[in-house]
Automatic annotation (TrEMBL):
Bias (Acidic residues): 81-90
Single Gene Ontology MF annotation: translation initiation factor activity
Protein name: Translation initiation factor IF-2
Region spans: Disordered: 54-120
Length: 120
């Protein structure tokens, strides 16, 4: 089986170090045509349970926000009321985007006579 795409899908860390597994993955990945999102999924799926568990408990110190605020659920977004302006009138709400309909095919109402060649 010399197909890099298949080898990449079958690649598992097993008892090897994370460095060795990553080297093999980085070698095979450019030889395939998988999109990056799929490659990330394949890499994570090939890790052993111990590596997966340790990566879940490791904190990422590179985040500029130490304790990010969670996003509001969609139900709370719908209840949001705009703040009043200086005139005590609320700002108008955003409306649904208007999607243009398909344009009608252009047909001319002018009639053209067919061109005829005059023979002398």
């Amino acid at each position: 089986m010399d197909n890099p795409a298949v080898l990449l899908l079958l690649l598992e860390q097993g008892n090897r170090s994370l460095v060795d597994h990553t080297k093999d993955f980085v070698y095979l990945a450019p030889l395939t045509h998988y999109p990056d999102s799929c490659l990330c999924t394949f890499y994570r799926a090939g890790l052993n349970i111990a590596t997966k568990a340790s990566s879940l408990t490791t904190e990422d110190d590179t985040s500029p926000t130490q304790d990010p605020e969670p996003s509001l659920p969609a139900s709370q977004h719908a209840e949001f009321e705009p703040e009043p302006t200086a005139d005590d009138e609320p700002e108008p709400r955003a409306t649904e985007p208007k999607i243009a309909t398909e344009p009608e095919p252009y047909t001319s109402d002018q009639v053209r006579e067919p061109a005829t060649a005059t023979v002398p």
